[in-house]
């Protein structure tokens, strides 16, 4: 499942449309999330990272009290099933905190999958016309311009680095959580030509993300271990709204950047964490804190991303991690082997034995917050009897950020408090959190 090249998502973004939102309620919604084998670009990618547009955030935006719970099984992406339209049609989407614009697969016979969304069956579906403010060509915040199609509708395109793509029309549609709780019509991409079968649920800090458009105050997810003892894929959980377990979470404040800051390597819409260091087997590695902070170019930013499989570190941090791994388990290293073009700390042998040689690893943040990766979860089985430490070099992917991927978020509640501008963590057995 190794990719020949990393897949960078290039998204089209725009300014927020004026929508009418219901007043905040005290009700909450609970839904289940499902994980399925990855398809197309998701199956072959080690990470997903969008080029962010520079939207200004409105701190006075009201939030809506949703509490939607879903469960998912963990493969390499976190797949959620959400009810969209009126009446609702269940759509599978990749939960991605590194992306902004959400999109779904729309039905265009005869080549689209049978699970694609059928606009003709929804009374709340509408397409944005060319004269809409979101469909202005050459808008500065756009990675690529939108265009008018032959029907005078607003057309968008996603392009991936390996040549895969998703394109279609910008539309408005509701998420129908229950008969009494729905979102207003939100901006979505309705893909009519795509190399993927799942859509994207964009959850970053951008004004076009689902969480922003739906006025979500909090959301959280719990990633189960990749495999249970029986060999099946366990089910995890996803909440929109307050998490009933949040009293035990430890929180770290997000780092924020002015939207006017134009740094070539910075994503100002990502969830950026104040990371302090890394411990392996109880030893604090000699890595300067500056390696985890954005420099004047934006390089070194540390972000947490549900849409990235493994964790990636800038060279200064990665070299220290590898140096320590060589000391602890050097004889077991598979020399000359690189998985996915970026993971070169790979081993032949039993993952449990090698994990015990390495010990636990911890990512340290401000306020005493830590993400502890237990030795049993240090290595990923990449096939052929090869086990790789789930950490790669960012520069081999062509990025200059530290990215904490979902592989190192297993058995961990991760809550994004959008009002409080903080992220919370809580250890748990995610396979039992549903």
Automatic annotation (TrEMBL):
Keywords: Aspartyl protease, Glycoprotein, Hydrolase, Protease, Signal. The keyword Acetylation does not apply. GO terms for molecular function: aspartic-type endopeptidase activity. Residues 1-22 form the signal peptide. CDD domains: pepsin_A_like_plant (cd05476). It comes from the Eukaryota. Residues 78-426 form the Peptidase A1 domain. SUPFAM superfamilies: Acid proteases. GO terms for biological process: proteolysis. InterPro entries: Aspartic_peptidase_AS, Pepsin-like_plant, PEPTIDASE_A1, Peptidase_aspartic_dom_sf, Plant_Aspart_Prot_A1, TAXi_C, TAXi_N. Belongs to the peptidase A1 family. PANTHER family: ASPARTYL PROTEASE FAMILY PROTEIN (PTHR47967:SF31), OS07G0603500 PROTEIN-RELATED (PTHR47967). This is Peptidase A1 domain-containing protein.
